[in-house]
Every structure is written in C-alpha cells, then in structure tokens.
Give the backbone structure.
Amino acid sequence: MSVGAVDAMLANEASPRAWTREEVRALFNLPFPELMFQAQTVHRRHFDPCEVQVSTLLSIKTGGCPEDCAYCPQSAHHETEVAAGKLMALDEVLAAARAAKEGGASRFCMGAAWRSPKDRDLDHVCEMIAGVKALGLESCVTLGMVTAPQAKRLKDAGLDYYNHNLDTSPEFYGEIVTTRCYQDRLDTLDHVRDAGINVCCGGITGMGEAREDRIGLIATLASLPVHPESVPINFLVQVAGTPLAGTERLDPFEFVRTIAAARITMPRSMVRLSAGREEMSDEMQALCFLAGANSIFAGDKLLTTANPGVAHDRGLFQRLGLVAMPA
Ligand code: SAM
Ligand code: DTB
Ligand code: SF4
C-alpha cells in the first residue's frame, strides 16, 4: 500500500473497527515520519497529547508460577532469583495502595503469579479490590485465566480493569508459552468483557519475534469484538535464568512503530508504555509519547523488575510538559 493509499484509508476513520493484517502491515511499512504523523493525528482526535495516565503496580503473589512463559522471571520452570511467596495480607496491600495514591497514581494494579486463581484466593482478592476502591483509586488485577463466574465475582467486588495479555501473534505464541494456548487467553478476555469489566490487553515486543508477529499481535487486538480499553505494550525485560535472556535487542524504532500502530488501530484506547522503560533513554520514551502512548506504570518496581523511580519520571514529565491524567 502506498503512503497515499494509507492516508486515504485513515482519512475517514470515525469509530473503532476491526483491522486486517494487510492494513496493519501497511502501517508498519510507512516511512517513520508518515507513521508518526498519522499516530499523532489520531491521538489528538481523542486525547489531550500532554496528558499521561499513571498506574502503580504491586505483585500481591510473587513467583512459583506453574506456567512456562519464556519471558517471565516468575515461572517455576526457570531458575531466576525470584523467590516464591504467599498471597500478601490485606493491610499490606492497602498500605501500598495508599502510598500509590499519595504518589499521584490514579489506578492501582495488583498482579499474581497464578495460572488461574482458586475460588478461595478470589475471596482475598475481592477484599483487596473493595479496599482499593474505598481509597478512591481505580482497581486493576491480573490473575491469569478466569472463568465466567470468577469474572462476575470480580465485577461484583468493584473491579474496574482486568489485565490479560495476548503477548504476541497466534503463530509465534507456541514458541513462548506451551502450558496454555492462545484460545485460552481469548476465552478469558471474553469472560472479562461479558462480566462488564474493562479489558486491559496487550503484548510484548523484543522476544525474537518477526515484524509479522508484531503485526499479527496488533491486528488481533484491534479485531477483538470490542477494542481493549487499555493496551499495554511491553518491551521485553531480559531476566537472567529465563529462556529469553540474551535475545538480540529489538531495534527501538520497531517498538515505537508498534506503539504507533496500536494508537492508530485502537484510537480510543489508552496505550500503555509498559515494561522496559528502565532500559529506555528519555528520548526513546518521548518518541513513544509522540507515537501515542498515554499511560505508564510509575514506581521503582514493576512486578519483580526495576522501573524508573517516581523522581525520574517527574523530571521527565516536567521536561516534556506532560501532566498526569486526572482519575
Ligand atoms: N500471571 C498472570 C498472567 O500471566 O496473566 C499475571 C501476571 S503476568 C507477569 C502479566 C504480563 O506481564 C504478562 O502477560 C507479560 O505480557 C508481562 N511480562 C511478564 N514478564 C515480562 C518481562 N520479562 N518483560 C516484559 N513483559 C513481561
Ligand atoms: C503488563 O502488560 N505489564 C505489567 C502488567 N501488565 C502486569 C507487568 C510487567 C512485568 C515485567 C516483569 C516483572 O517485573 O516481573
Ligand atoms: Fe505465570 Fe503470568 Fe509469569 Fe506466565 S506471565 S509465568 S502466567 S506469572
């Protein structure tokens, strides 16, 4: 597709729609300045380009996970320095949520290294959600696969967002995870959507995938029955002991292109510049914001790996004239 043809294709975009691979491929193939122009045009149609939503992440149950996700330091299949822990106590979680609120976060996300939660685990998580909501924060959890009744329980507890990523294209997925399949992920997304919870769903780049896999990921996300409200794009954090440690580092511009493609294809979604910021220059992060990213995780730690500190992010926001999005 020529630059002019892509221009014409985007000129009449009014509402969210499904995207074919060919269309997404055409975006990835644009010269970088054209892609950035299109991404910014779409971004400004729906958002203030100077506002960035800030979430805080807490690992409420760390390590010892039975799944074999090749990127993940928390999998029991890999020998990493992450020790397996138990589910955190409610008061500890709420103390962290209070600190996140004081630090300026509008959303508090809790992650658990589970394949799927047991019903009695869910009792505790529901109490945490209710506590986080009572503090005036939006709530998000990522607990692995959930059934329809479990999703309903989470909704009843007041959950705002459920994070469950597709991670990559359907073709590459089997190289990365063997203990659950792509369809399992799609099923969980359906359960969450049907329960009336906002969907947070994205993927990872830099795992040794081809551009076609990044295209396949974006086309799949943008063809879900409803676009995810939030789309985290992670840059692989290489952790010693995981099978993906030592993978050749992806060209940073490819990552920026992936952000831009997410922005253009899912115009009303929040696109999160997610894991991997610790190893990115400030200039690369600025390019991601220019490409349409409008959400980040703040705080020293993601789940188990490092994230730029709050002071650094505050400085970056100031230098770029960005402001935290009000809740
Ligand atoms: N166990 C749950 C699950 O897999 O759905 C929730 C937690 S899991 C750590 C959430 C997401 O974090 C994964 O789907 C993956 O996209 C991302 N992630 C995990 N390890 C990562 C890494 N080393 N680099 C970048 N992203 C990572
Ligand atoms: C997502 O897409 N990225 C976040 C969140 N959802 C849960 C997690 C990133 C984890 C990075 C590796 C770690 O810190 O363990
Ligand atoms: Fe477990 Fe989630 Fe890590 Fe996969 S990504 S190993 S499911 S914690």
Observations:
- The longest helix spans residues 119-134.
- Residues 65, 67, 69, 72, 74-75, 113, 144 surround iron/sulfur cluster (ligand 3) (CB under 6 Å).
- DSSP finds twelve helices and ten strands in the chain.
